[in-house]
Design brief:
This protein is mostly beta strands and 415 residues long. Helix content is 4%, strand content 35%. The protein is built from two helices and 24 strands. The strands form six sheets. A four-stranded antiparallel beta sheet has the order 1-24-23-22, with no helix packed on it. A four-stranded antiparallel beta sheet has the order 2-3-4-5, with no helix packed on it. Strands 6-7-8-9 form a four-stranded antiparallel beta sheet, with no helix packed on it. The radius of gyration is 21 Å and the shape is globular.
């Protein structure tokens, strides 16, 4: 069996467009409904459907919503990944630097104080480092936390490792997946990890500076992989062939450097943000068994696609690269006009990009880029349970929020 040697075990919601102009007494109901919305959001229950908030358009999506402002939450060097725990803590991974072997930390933040949860020595050249973090859907029961990083010794290695949360510290590391790479390579590691609605663990690996192996099913590079939470391989993976030559963990292939992906709560599909070379950053709809073409469906001289029929076509292409370094589909009570929109932080520009999709979730209908006063949206974003949008730059973590008093309409309760 060709495996990566594990070492341990819809229809979119359409809501009527409405803005309710209410008398002063109903402001009390606004407070109560907001509180009930927040309490209804739980992280990590596979039995519950995502809370789907209705869409409330505003006249002009070219501007940040009225009353929105950003504040710095923490000063940290290069936060790369973040997860909101059901106990109220925020788990934060930091890259570790940009040169040589350095310490990288996982922190927990309770809103008032920062606690060091784990320290690793990682290789940090270029895009190496501590780059991925996800909490198990049953975190409240098992306390499992999953990390992706490039190890420093005895030689650089891409690793997916599971830890357990015990008394506020990371313990019992278990390597679930590993991939060797050329020590001269310092880019295209991806490393984003997330649990899907099916309870499986999805992880992206860039092409590790190799190019062509992104098309080879026997090689881990340039792929999205799908695993069980214990690192074993689900037999319903699209390229699973048991004793055959394929890596059974491969879910999709042909990626250069998919820095991040997310599960769309409205359609269940995977949306991925792909970093192109000197052009052609992409938003992709990632499906089981899909081939996204890198590097064969691309002309490096003209930046044009070959449009070969065996390759999936992107939902959207940025001809001038923005270097997308995160993705989320907004669903929350704080910015109802954004519900269902795709949010992406652009490393190159520091802007927050917002893309709207049609009802089928298969076509981009609008693209907007926001400059956020006093902050740069270079990594992320992540949507918090209260609906605030967190994002990062190379020096810290920020929160884009709107005080409840600035909402001009009463938010309906989720159905």
């Amino acid at each position: 069996m060709a495996t990566l040697a594990p070492l341990a075990r819809g229809q979119p919601i359409r809501s009527p467009e409405r803005a309710l102009h209410l008398a002063i007494p109903l402001l009390v109901l606004l407070f109560l409904s907001a509180c009930q919305l927040q309490s209804s959001v739980r992280v990590g229950s596979l039995s519950e459907q995502p809370v789907r908030f209705p869409f409330h358009p505003l006249p002009d999506l070219r501007k940040l919503p009225p009353g929105a402002s950003a504040t710095r939450v923490l000063s940290l060097p290069v936060p790369t990944a973040l997860a909101f725990a059901p106990d109220g803590r925020v788990f934060i991974a930091e890259k570790g630097g940009f040169e040589g072997d350095q310490e990288a930390h996982v922190w927990t933040f309770n809103g008032a104080s920062l606690q060091r949860w784990l320290t690793l020595t990682v290789s940090t050249e270029g895009e190496r480092g501590l780059v991925g973090l996800a909490l198990d859907p049953y975190f409240e029961r098992d306390g499992f936390v999953y990390l992706v990083y490039t190890s420093a010794r005895p030689q650089p290695e891409w690793r997916l490792v599971r830890y357990r949360d015990e008394s506020g510290r990371g313990v019992e590391p278990t390597v679930l997946m590993r991939a060797a790479f050329d020590p001269s390579c310092s880019f295209h590691f991806s490393g984003h990890i997330a649990f899907g609605p099916d309870g499986r663990l999805y992880v992206a690996i860039g092409d590790l500076c190799l190019g062509n192996p992104a098309q080879y099913l026997e090689h881990p590079a340039g792929k999205m992989h799908r695993l069980n939470p214990d690192g074993t391989i689900p037999p319903d993976n699209p390229f699973y062939d048991g004793s055959g030559p394929n890596l059974d963990s491969v879910f999709a292939l042909g990626f250069r450097n998919t820095f991040a992906f997310t599960f769309d709560p409205l359609s269940g599909q995977i949306l991925g943000a792909e970093n192109g070379p000197q052009c052609n950053d992409e938003l992709n709809r990632i499906r089981p068994g899909g081939n996204y073409g890198w590097p064969w469906d691309f002309n490096h001289q003209t930046c044009e696609y070959a449009d070969l029929p065996q390759f999936e076509k992107p939902l959207y292409v940025w001809k001038t690269p923005i270097a997308p370094a995160g993705i989320a589909v907004y669903s929350g009570p704080m910015f109802p006009e954004w519900n269902g929109a795709v949010l992406i932080c652009a490393w190159n520009t520091g802007q927050l990009h917002l893309l709207t999709l049609d009802d089928s979730r298969q076509r981009v209908t609008g693209v907007f880029a926001y400059s956020i006063p006093g902050a740069s949206c270079r990594i992320g974003p992540w949507v918090a349970p209260d609906g605030a949008v967190w994002f990062a730059d190379a020096d810290g973590l920020y929160r884009l929020y709107r005080p409840w008093r600035n909402l001009s309409f009463l938010l309906p309760l989720p159905r």
